[in-house]
Amino acid sequence: MYYIGIDIGATNTRIAVADEGGRILKRIRFSSPHEGDENTVAEVILEKLRSEFAQYLDRVKSVGIGTIGPVDLRRGMVVNTPNLGIPTFHLVKPLSESLKRPVYMLNDCVAAVWGERRFGAARGVDNAVYITISTGIGGGVIVNGALLLGKDGNAHEIGHIVVDYKYRLRCGCGGYGHWEGYASGSGIPRFAKYIAENEELSPEEQRSPLYELALAGGLRSEILYREARRGDAFAKRVVEEVTRINIAGVASVINVYDPEVVTIGGSIALRNPDLVIEPIVREAPRNVITRAPRIEATPLGDDAVLYGAIALAMEPPETLLRMLQQAI
Ligand SMILES: [Zn+2]
Q1: Given CA atoms 59, 300, 84, 34 in this order, what sign does their dihedral have?
Q2: 76-97, pLDDT tens digit by residue?
Q3: How do the domains of the chain map onto residue ranges?
Q4: Which of 130, 196, 261, 289 is the most core-located residue (most Cβ within 10 A)?
């Protein structure tokens, strides 16, 4: 038997087929549709499954999806997502009716921690947290073996934890002082601008060409971490401030959930493990009251959500099945 895993991101959608051991036999990637109606995303996925995975479809046992949110798991939909041109769309109903197989979906980071437990760094562990530091910041959590979902499936919007009451930076969601508003791909240029405008800087920091770039709002994460590594004084200063925010966020998550293991993924963290993950590993445990967990980069890399979707297809969590029963 085979299992299909689908990772629906704001930019790309990825589909993989895996065997019973979780080995990926084939995978494809394509641009997520940004135009259409409530059925377009499912239709595009079905078309790809029929054209690219025809040889496997007869023997597919079930399908798992990890998707950008917000989600409504009872209705099997994505609802009002700010990240795709199509804000609201059906997934579970059109796919399950057409494929005649069980289809399960989860928010992407929630799927990722489920994958971490089956395939990654949380194997054999009942308490685990997955954190993504990317364009946005999000998380997935398993407590005492139960995958936490929340009332609609949108638990762990950890990017909107308030990490700073002092800075008055506004997050993309409209709130103030949120972790994502400072340390994510979307937040870093605005935080760098704030630092350039408001913080006391040394003459060396002000002489950096990045200081001007930051004032113009153009200091993106790729440039920031590259130049910090090269020794630029202003870049190092901003990285230091971003690191403090990341430590506050991760420490808060550890204090709330008491995990055995915390894995960190997402493009910003995975591309800059030395400047993003290592300081968190070093400093976050000093800021927690619980017994310190193991903290590490996800061994699943960019495939964390995809493996999560496969794990979901292989073994849908009890908490999800219970939620779906209540919907009937
Ligand atoms: Zn926010």
Answers
A1: negative
A2: 999 998 878 899 999 999 999 9
A3: 2-114+303-327, 124-299
A4: 130
